[in-house]
Write a structure and sequence with these properties.
Length: 264
């Protein structure tokens, strides 16, 4: 199967860059499943949310899953690539670097508040109505959007990626088969490092235990399956859980709600 590569350079040229006077620029685009945007970076920050569909963003040696109605913040200058996991309608929003809503170079996955969704819809409506740029109403909406973004709850499906070759072999294998039931001791014999060494590498390089990292991988794989309508019982079985209730309990413990509510 041919993987469609999206020309982000051409897409960038279709937009004007945000400025201090107009700190937000918005657009919309539809991308098909398996579409890939190769690693690139911008002088501005970018907040992208999926009206529907699921995407995976890779940056800073980590991978984030962005479900429907969530948004990913990518700081200015951060190299990132995107893979569409399910047909997606995106709303990318460029943010002037001097008005970035978060400090530092960390990416974030946010749950859009009801207020932020309405503000974004209102800003889009102005553009469709042909409102003159930098009108007082547009300025007020932009200021409210920039104030509301950092108030949104963070819900990250983050999978950090290692640099150590032994750990990378293990992680690549589990990403390819997240339902594998091989223990850390079992992996040790396959990658040429002791169980203690691997446990230490997980904590040092990925800042989490082996079991926590594997759980994040399974959640990341579950996202497009659930959003695509696969029954939870099948998702649980595919990811190595003994039952649907065991998977749902883990999901609720992580996100504070059931899988069906999360992807509603």
């Amino acid at each position: 199967m041919t993987i469609p590569i999206v020309n982000h350079t051409r897409f960038d040229r279709e937009w004007e860059a945000p400025t201090a006077a107009q700190p937000i620029m918005m657009a919309g685009r539809d991308l098909r499943a398996s579409a890939v945007m190769q690693p690139h970076h911008h002088a501005w920050g970018q907040l992208t949310y999926a009206v529907h569909g699921v995407m995976r963003v890779e940056a800073n040696n980590s991978s984030w899953i962005v479900p429907p109605q969530r948004a990913v913040w990518i700081p200015p200058g951060v190299v990132h690539g995107t893979t569409v996991l399910e047909d997606t309608h995106l709303r990318p929003m460029r943010v002037y670097a001097g008005r970035a809503p978060f400090p530092g170079n960390s990416c974030k996955v946010l749950e859009l508040s009801s207020l932020l969704r309405e503000l974004l819809a209102a800003l889009e409506a102005l553009d469709r109505q042909g409102e003159p740029p930098s009108s007082p109403r547009e300025h007020l909406l932009m200021e409210m959007i920039l104030d509301e973004i950092p108030r949104c709850a963070e819900h990250a499906l983050r999978v950090p990626l290692p640099s150590d070759k032994r750990l990378k072999t293990l992680c690549d294998a589990l990403i390819a088969d997240p339902g594998a039931e091989v223990t850390l001791a079992g992996w040790a014999s396959q990658v040429g490092a002791s169980e203690r060494t691997l446990a230490r590498l997980f904590e040092r390089e990925l800042d989490m235990s082996f079991s926590h990292w594997r759980q994040q991988v399974r959640l990341a794989h579950a996202a497009p399956l659930i959003a695509g309508g696969m029954p939870l019982s099948q998702v649980a079985a595919q990811l190595g859980y003994a039952s649907q209730s065991a998977f749902s309990a883990m999901f609720r413990k992580t996100f504070g709600c059931s899988p069906s509510s999360f992807f509603k």
